[in-house]
Amino acid sequence: MNLVLGIDGGGTSCRAALATLAGDIIGRGKSGPANIMTDLTGARHNIVEAARLAFVDAGKDSTMISATDAVLGLAGTNVGGYRQQLEAVLPFRRSLVESDAVIALNGALGERDGAIAIIGTGSIFMSRKGAAMQTIGGWGFMLGDLGGGARIGRDLLQEVLVAHDDIRPGSELTHAVMAHFGGDPREIVKFAAASKPADFGNFAPLVFDFAARGDSVGSRVIARAVGDVEEALDALKLEPDQILCLLGGLAALIAPQLSHRYRMMLRPPLQDALGGAVSMAARLFGAPKGGADG
Amino acid sequence: MNLVLGIDGGGTSCRAALATLAGDIIGRGKSGPANIMTDLTGARHNIVEAARLAFVDAGKDSTMISATDAVLGLAGTNVGGYRQQLEAVLPFRRSLVESDAVIALNGALGERDGAIAIIGTGSIFMSRKGAAMQTIGGWGFMLGDLGGGARIGRDLLQEVLVAHDDIRPGSELTHAVMAHFGGDPREIVKFAAASKPADFGNFAPLVFDFAARGDSVGSRVIARAVGDVEEALDALKLEPDQILCLLGGLAALIAPQLSHRYRMMLRPPLQDALGGAVSMAARLFGAPKGGADG
């Protein structure tokens, strides 16, 4: 067998790519969510289905799955036990299950040193220097994910209630949000009680939009988020000549707000996270010496 | 019938007091939770049971409940509909359902003008000047309750993760909390996902304790909470000669931290919330002119 699989699984879908040992992708497949924390059996099913579709897409016999090595990047791997449980039931010849951030880092940086900041609904920061990796954040909406969209949305809604109570002045943004909720603060409280992080995150682009037009509350919320991102980057202790890639749904909105120092380090990612998983698989399992055993 | 009922219902218990038209309490009763948002039928049951026990305690015939007027202070009355639904099924002759904060204000201030700040797991602020009442806060753990114990606990746990990631320096307090969770930040994330506001609030006394001993993170968290309380008090626009009562489980810990201006206004409450409900009932239903109809 001279092929490898890269797999990128998340809460909404699972993507697989079949590639040569040189890392050239020859087939792709996509299936449903692969959340190993909430549904391990369903995640396994969708991982295998995406891999099967990648074989079909490449015109290859999908029964060869059991003879193929795979690198998987999945959300939730840092919570104890799930990763080992999944590795035990995967049908591939050899499997390496990593976090979604690790394959994103490998995709963005290739084999270079540097750092990534993934800023979407949540936030996580990673750096690599040789074999040394450092991860910051990624602790989720309630206590972490600082600078991410969900925290921006939550911060906004808190500011709307604070303005409603005349504790601090409101702005066009808080008035617009209050109008969106029919002028009733209790509707905001009900929304918050029923919402997932992504629902809060849906407000983030609006906040950037108002902040760009000088809205006082919007500017305060964004300044706080950007400050949180910068503090996390500071903790990575990057050298000025290092590469920094901003990834995730808010990357393009956060990037122009960063301080000069970090803007100078920004480079576009080489590949996406799936490409990172493929590259890792080719490097790990395709090397002439036989590669590692995961 | 020359008796009135005051009732104080909350998430853990319901208390009733039977009183003369002059407001003198002659019997008391206590039953289970009266949370009208989560269990209206159960709340009605416990309200009636507490009232019945108050009649028994006073040596009175409890079938007289249907001939007795009542003032009830209950959590959750500001969320649309529950209050009207409850009033429709109560067995008293006339019923006035108010928020728990309104009866607390009447208990603390009597008939005087002034303000209260209830700071326990959550936070809410109210002032009265003649017939005019103003309420600030009370929007719950996710977006409000600033300065309350649950927000203090949540803020602490966020600081512990931030210190774990070396984003900001830790302290004896963050080390103690991390040790409490076995040194594993994922245990903190799991705790947060499974916890109710009161669980977060359980950390608040610890934060005050460390802050009093000069702990840097503890002091920062408490300073933020006290700042939030002061901002809310500022929004009530109190005059220097007005009375301010601090109520709730954290009142004694917050009071010494307030600025001189507010410390000078502090007075002990005249009565607790149940006493406030009784006074309101006596005033409203016991007046010779027959009182209001609720």
Automatic annotation (TrEMBL), chains A, B:
Record GO terms (molecular function): kinase activity
Keywords: Kinase, Transferase
Pfam families, per the entry: BcrAD_BadFG
UniProt xrefs under CDD domains: ASKHA_NBD_GspK-like
Domain ATPase BadF/BadG/BcrA/BcrD type: 5-251
Lineage: superkingdom: Bacteria
Entries under InterPro entries matching the protein: ATPase_BadF, ATPase_NBD, Euk-type_GlcNAc_Kinase
rRNA processing is among the record's keywords: no
Record's protein name: N-acetylglucosamine kinase
Source organism of this protein record: Borborobacter arsenicus
